[in-house]
Amino acid sequence: MDCETEFEMGLKSQLCKRLKSKEEVEQTDRISDLPDHIICDVLSYLTMEEVVRTSILSSRWRYHWKGVTSIRLWGSNSDPNSFANFVEHVLQNCNSTNLEVFNLSCPVRIDLPRLNTWIRYVLSLNIGKLSLYVNHRPFELPEFPLPICNLTCSSLVSLDLRSCFDIQIPDSVVCFPHLKSLDLNVIFPNNLAVLHRLLSCCPLLERLRLWCYLDDLEVLNLDISVPTLKRLDLWLQEEGYAVIRNYEIIINTPYLEYLSIHDNSLAHYVLNNLYGLRDVHIGYLTQNYGDIEPLHAIRLLELFHGIRSTDILTLHPDTLIVLESALSYPWPTFRYVTMLIVSPSSSSAWTCLALLLQSTPNLEVLILDHDEINDLRINDELYAWNPPESVPSCLLERLQKIGIKSFWGKEDEVEVVEYLLNHCQVLELMIIGFFSNKKDEKVAEKLLAFPRASSTCDVQVYEHFWFDSFIWLLTSLFFSVSSQI
């Protein structure tokens, strides 16, 4: 009995120790046990409102937020005064002398002298990435006075001014030796000289996004000559209707790989040395379709000639509306385009598509988005499919994958699918996604029954949601493969 009693006592003792050890593990605050620099790094991914709230967790957490190297302040819909007080509380208690990220989104009616003081202070902290946004309505010039942004920081790697600022570059220090990414909203003609000067001060600039507001301007000469640039996003926004103006945009960027142009001013583009283009998006827009003049179409074709070396081409809907006025002019041949993403317009319908297929002899992937054509159609008779006189060579030799988005099952759409299946001799896959979340089974059966020129072609019909997911995967895989070539 004594032996059994000792055994039982020993067993109970071991169980108690294990239970106590388990309880201690469960009570351990693993996050608080992390080193300070790791905790600060984790906090840097939160907004400052969330970061400051962590000070109530424990005595150790009380001051952690003051050492963060990334500050993100979002007060878009806040009361201007209370938000300004919170920003100043954060900046006054920030212990970091090397701030990596400062991201500030302010209400519209923020006190400008206070905002300018914050900018000057942050620029003094060896800031790496600076993003400033003062709310105003998109596509409209701001009606309130502009904040002053003195650009004198040599440590900046990324600068993002997503609102219009009164940009000032002092005559003394004008070089930005480490700046690689620049995002600006600018008002022309006020900021034109400053912009040209700024671009000349960025010897390592790789990414440039410009949102340009044209404020009652008759003449514009914008020169983007940046030898190191790899990515360019250009938005030209003009109030009023498309009229002929003397707008000239010069792009001289020999290492450019990505180009996106959204322009409702129908400017004249002079493209030089664009030999490395991989991906191009063109949104050549107009606010009044009835006032498109022949010169607009000629300017668009000149732009096409400058980008004809690209591998991937995306044409937004209004671009094809302008192209409709250029059907009688000679089109450039895009010999290197292997992927074409296009939205048939509400005006020219399928005519431009036939010409684009003839102009892309090495096309391998074609994606059609029917949102625009189906949203605006009034008379279905305007949308009859007229096949080209001769079968485009890409259909006979190269085209392997086709994706059709927002398919409604109208007669012209069905005819396009039938034509492509009948003539694409090496087609491997056609994906069709209906506009609604419920596909038309009768139309789907008709599509699947069409004869196919390619014996290896697989036709799949999906609901709208699943098709969007597939197109994302298809384009991602294509970009991944093409980047390795």
UniProtKB/TrEMBL annotation:
Gene3D superfamilies: 1.20.1280.50, Ribonuclease Inhibitor (3.80.10.10). Residues 28-77 form the F-box domain. It holds the Pfam family LRR_At5g56370. It comes from the Eukaryota. PANTHER family: F-BOX/RNI SUPERFAMILY PROTEIN-RELATED, FBD DOMAIN-CONTAINING PROTEIN. This is F-box/LRR-repeat protein At4g14103-like. The gene is LOC110775927.
